[in-house]
Design brief:
The chain has one domain. The chain is an all-alpha fold and about 475 residues long. Helix content is about 70%, strand content about 0%. Helix 1 packs antiparallel against helix 2 and helix 4 packs across helix 6.
Length: about 475
């Protein structure tokens, strides 16, 4: 009896210490988030832009401070480290002793708050979003003209690189962006904040549908990998990228398919495609699933139903949305830059090195060939993953296959940006095992840090070497720090 009481007392003391430790880490994460936003406001942006007058920690000028940006980089890395420590401590506990799902959701909300009210980190795309919405609201076609035609506060916030280019965003995304512009009027700063609210609403929807799809015992792990992920905080909450909508719809599509509602799944897949082109992966998944998993007697009917749903949804968008296919001609806009984070850029420069020519037109040909090779390899890998998703495997296999297919597409295009990872992040979090979850966590950290730094190819290479060196040192000296179960 005395032994039982003593054991209970020890467990209570351990739980109390654990709770205090979690509280300290959670509070530290909030302080680091707030410091990051404040430093980013002081650091500014290198692009020649004029941002709206701040009402909080918000960069306003076109000059950037390398010193402040270096501190910002270190703070984001520290936030990633805190996420790492919190995840390790959380998952090392027995399931019954872990803090609850609402507690973890509350920590995610607290960490998000500074990013919600501060200026954008690492990217000015949110101002481009606002300008696109302004164009549409004024009756101009963003697929024919760039934001520079506005000649107002909206145009001044857009990087000169994109002021004269048409938008490559899908018509449903453009329609969504009209609402913030309509509400904000001539106030570009208010429009930016309203676009951010759209992104946060999309994130909330993605988390909600993900928690609906996952098993109860996996909910805390999924929250750790998604809502509390520094990549999500920086690129979605702060950066306000609407790519998270594709991630939410990816989970919804698999959920509907596996619930026996392929027609509704196709509606969601087509909607994702008309938000951003990678949603086409989801259309392929629905068709392939109807072909491979439907019993032979009803296979033809399943395929016809899926195609009919796709045609009906496409027709409805064509009727309801202005110039629904105008974006097709602008899909090459992101590829006009030789963006240093894209593996296709690395392959292209490798080809240029092999041929011994870094001058035009040979370099352009190297980029054309390198991008085609990378895209073909990525498409083949994505196709194999979709075959896994539509085979005789479990529902978890379906989520993992679709999620990783979207991640592969994200890294095999002509441009790769950190927020592209959210296309498949939520499905990967549901369907992957421990190894897959560790991989997506590591990829999130690398892309988050690199994305905030916004460096070129040489910078990315140097940063990767630093990360690899730190990883090797920790692995040799303190290997137990890397032992995160994530299952």
């Amino acid at each position: 009896m005395d032994g039982t009481i003593a054991l209970a007392a020890q467990r209570a003391a351990l739980l109390e210490r654990t709770t205090v430790r979690f509280g300290v880490v959670a509070g530290s994460g909030f302080l680091v988030s707030a410091a990051t936003v404040a430093v980013a406001g002081a650091g500014g942006f290198a692009q020649q832009v004029t941002l709206p007058a701040p009402w909080s920690f918000w960069p306003t000028g076109s000059a950037s401070s390398e010193g402040w940006l270096a501190i910002e980089l270190l703070l984001v890395a520290l936030l990633c480290l805190l996420w790492f420590v919190l995840s390790r401590a959380f998952l090392a506990l027995p399931t019954a002793e872990r803090p609850t799902t609402p507690w973890l959701a509350g920590v995610a909300a607290v960490w998000s708050l500074p990013f919600l009210i501060g200026g954008p980190l690492g990217s000015l795309d949110v101002f481009s979003y606002a300008a696109v919405g302004r164009l549409a609201e004024l009756g101009l076609n963003p697929y024919h003209v760039g934001p520079g035609i506005l000649s107002d506060a909206y145009a001044a916030t857009v990087s000169p690189m994109w002021r004269t280019t048409p938008t490559p965003y899908g018509p449903l995304q453009v329609s969504l962006l009209r609402l913030p512009a309509a509400l904000a009027g001539t106030d570009a700063g208010a429009a930016m904040l309203l676009v951010r609210l759209l992104a946060v609403a999309g994130l909330a929807g993605a988390v909600a549908v993900t928690l609906r799809a996952v098993r109860d015992q996996d909910r805390t792990v999924v929250l750790l990998l998604t809502a509390l992920n520094p990549l999500v905080l920086v690129t979605i909450v702060s950066g306000a990228h609407l790519d998270v909508l594709v991630g939410a719809l990816a989970v919804l599509v698999v959920l509907l398919v596996r619930s026996g509602r392929p027609a509704w799944a196709m509606v969601a897949a087509v909607a994702a495609c008309f938000i951003k082109l990678p949603g086409a992966v989801l259309i392929g998944y629905v068709l392939l699933d109807a072909l491979r998993r439907s019993p032979a007697p009803v296979r033809r009917r399943a395929l016809v139903g899926a195609v009919a749903a796709a045609a009906a949804t496409t027709g409805a968008i064509w009727l309801l949305v202005p110039d629904a296919f105008g974006w097709v001609g602008a899909l090459g806009v992101p590829g006009t830059t030789r963006e240093g984070m894209a593996p296709s850029t690395w392959v292209s420069y490798l080809l240029a090195a092999v041929t011994g020519s870094f001058t035009e037109p040979a370099l352009s040909w190297a980029f054309t060939i390198g991008r085609v090779l990378t895209a073909v390899a990525g498409s083949a890998a994505a196709g194999l993953l979709l075959l896994r998703a539509t085979g005789r495997g479990t529902t978890k296999d379906a989520y993992a296959g679709v999620g990783w297919a979207l991640v592969v597409v994200a890294v095999s295009g002509p441009s790769t940006y950190p927020w592209y990872l959210t296309w498949g992040l939520f499905a990967v979090a549901i369907g992957s095992g421990a190894r897959g979850r560790r991989a997506i966590a590591a990829l999130s950290v690398v892309l988050c840090v690199v994305g905030v730094f916004s460096g070129g190819l040489i910078t990315v290479g140097a940063l990767c070497l630093v990360i690899a060196g730190a990883w090797t040192l920790i692995r040799r000296r303190r290997p137990e720090l890397l032992a995160i179960p994530l299952d």
